TrEMBL record:
Provenance organism: bacterium (Candidatus Ratteibacteria) CG15_BIG_FIL_POST_REV_8_21_14_020_41_12
One GO CC term on file: plasma membrane
Pfam family membership, one: T2SSE
Alphabetical list of Gene3D superfamilies matching this protein: 3.30.450.90, P-loop containing nucleotide triphosphate hydrolases, Type II secretion system, protein E, N-terminal domain
Residue span(s) of domain Bacterial type II secretion system protein E: 382-396
Keywords: ATP-binding, Nucleotide-binding
Family: Belongs to the GSP E family.
The name this protein goes by in its record: Type II secretion system protein GspE
Molecular function in Gene Ontology: ATP binding; ATP hydrolysis activity
Length: 569
């Protein structure tokens, strides 16, 4: 069995990883102690589909059909139950001085280190499917599986709700929320959502049903329909975890749940809303490990990456990122701030809310109820001698005015606006009431962005494009272009997509654009001038990514609209 370094090098040698990716993954494992497979998947470098039978054989990992045979007690005792549960491994047998482990994570080198270093034993891994591992963990260690179906059946058969249809049932509701089956169900829903890369968990009471949906890669997927009679108890459980008022069902509430899942800090932002059939509850999953990605993972093509890097190097001025809610603006800004986060610079942010805590950055959350607004915090920031400022969003004239004036006094300021494209940011600022001279003198550049889903690399299929598609992609007669569409496999949960990537349009201010701002020119004039500077539009950026086999025509059209006519001189 190879060591971690040897195995990672093997992945590099067979073309699955680059040298820098190997080093990044190994360094992250040293810091987090997570399995190398999970780290590679989190970094986006490796998916289950990469681990084919040929690769397993190169690692010396043998498949085993089942793990249902009886295992000797002394073998079971060789592994603490906590370790078996955490790493999802089961001991199967001892061969001389070698311990045979069953795992569905054949690259779980952390387990190898544990046994070879702590128990002074050689370890051999065999491939065992997840269901067999779950049943063996339950059989030998008393660890329950995470299959929700038996739990639902048990609840349906033996569960009698004590909640009454009355506002006076708060004590009973709290008692229900503390029952073991309800606690287990709530925990499982959160764990399952995190495992499936959900950004939000929607708990929705309907007229005759109770629905759970996960938002994955920007799209809602129905995952479970628990029994209707436990609806209020489940929602009460989540409210209890978020320290909300159980008795208040007439008004919306906000709360927060802090969890630690396999060593990863997870922050759940919980909101409730009264409805006709009960309270609707949504939990937004904030996972720092997925938020702070590398710049290379944002999706910049070389030309746009060069433009964005240029904007990051300015010592003063304001840089804006535009796009609707859910377009990835926060991820882009956090990732960019992290690259600027050095010991010789002071970085400060004002946000609503602070979504992720970044070491080395001073972050402030606004509190409008006590007068702590974006504008008031920004004024105080200027007395703190900062180098780089992030204003979560420019919503009003006061915030815009202070932000742009701060940009004129030697501070690099980042912020966001809700506009359809990058050129519209100039007219939006002027519409807010910012003097045109202030926009022209302080604005350094603008980037608009959207997110499109990535085609699953393991099941995407090539197809001959029709005439409409050829026209959209500007495919010329005789041009050799490979276009792909979705298919569906186990790796992508049969959606055809796995992950998302940004499409961008970026312009850097020049003299012509500053003159147009001073003249309060229309957006279409600013757009023409930005394109003259070399700005690639959102749709053009998306088309390049379709041609590269990264996404589909449907995805790009869904965020950029019909074919646009771009004139370049």
């Amino acid at each position: 069995m190879p060591t971690k370094k040897e195995a990672a090098t093997l992945l590099q040698n067979i073309g699955l990883l680059t040298g820098s990716q190997v080093e990044e993954a190994l360094e992250k494992q040293r810091q987090t102690k997570h399995s190398i497979k999970n780290i590679l998947k989190e970094l986006g470098y490796l998916h289950q589909g990469n681990i084919g039978s040929s690769l397993l054989s190169q690692f010396g990992i043998l498949p085993r059909e089942t793990s249902e045979e009886n295992v000797a007690p002394e073998v079971i005792k060789s592994i603490p139950s906590s370790f078996a549960k955490e790493h999802q491994v089961i001991p199967l047998e001892k061969k001389d001085d070698t311990l045979v482990l069953g795992t569905d994570e054949p690259l779980n080198f952390l387990a190898l280190d544990y046994f070879e270093e702590e128990l002074k034993k050689k370890v051999q891994l065999v491939m065992v499917n997840q269901n067999a591992i779950a049943s063996s963990l339950k059989k030998y260690y008393g660890i329950e599986t995470e299959d929700l179906s038996p739990l639902f059946e048990k609840i349906d058969q033996g569960y009698t709700p004590i909640l009454k249809e009355t506002e006076k049932a708060v004590e009973g509701e709290e008692e229900e929320a503390k029952r073991a089956p309800i606690i287990k169900l709530a925990n499982m829903l959160i764990a399952d959502g995190i495992k499936k890369r959900a950004s939000d968990i929607h708990v929705e009471p309907l007229e005759n049903t109770f629905r759970i949906r996960y938002r994955i890669d920007g799209v809602l997927h129905e995952t479970l329909s628990p029994p209707k009679n436990i609806q209020r108890a489940v929602i009460a459980r989540f409210k209890l975890m978020a320290q909300m008022n159980l008795a208040e069902k007439r008004l919306p509430q906000d709360g927060r749940i802090m969890l630690n899942v396999q060593g990863r800090p997870i922050d759940l932002r919980v909101s409730t809303l009264p409805g006709l059939y009960g309270e609707s509850l949504v939990m937004r999953i904030l996972d720092k490990t997925t938020m702070l990605v590398g710049m290379d993972q944002l999706g910049f093509l070389p030309e746009n990456r060069k433009r964005w890097d240029t904007l990051l190097k300015f010592s003063g001025g304001i840089v804006l990122v535009t796009g609707p809610t859910g377009s990835g603006k926060t991820t882009t800004l956090y990732t960019s701030l992290n690259t600027l986060n050095t010991t010789d610079k002071k970085l400060m942010t004002v946000e609503e809310p602070v979504e992720y805590q970044i070491s080395g950055i001073n972050q402030t959350q606004v509190r409008p109820d006590i007068g702590l607004t974006f504008a008031s915090v920004l004024r105080s920031f200027l007395r703190q001698s900062p180098d780089v400022l992030l204003v979560g969003e420019i919503r009003d004239l006061e915030t815009a005015d202070i932000g742009l004036r701060a940009a004129l006094t030697g501070h690099l300021v980042f912020s966001t606006l809700h506009t359809n494209d990058a050129p519209s940011a100039i007219t939006r600022l002027i519409d807010l009431g910012v003097p045109p001279f202030l926009v022209a003198s302080s604005l350094q550049g603008v980037m608009a962005q959207r997110l499109v889903r990535l085609l699953c690399p393991y099941c995407k299929e090539e197809y001959p494009p029709d005439e409409e598609t050829k026209n959209f992609l500007d495919i010329k007669a005789g041009e050799d272009v490979h276009i792909y569409r979705t298919n569906g496999c186990e790796a992508c949960d049969y959606t055809g997509y796995h992950g998302r990537i940004g499409i961008f349009e970026i312009f850097i201010m020049n003299n012509e654009l500053r003159e147009l701002a001073l003249k309060k020119a229309a957006t279409f004039e600013i757009r023409k001038a930005a394109i003259k500077t070399g700005m690639r539009t959102l749709q053009e950026d998306g088309i390049i990514k379709i041609r590269k086999g990264l996404t589909t025509v449907d995805e790009v059209v869904s965020v950029t609209g019909r074919k646009e006519n771009v004139t370049r001189n």
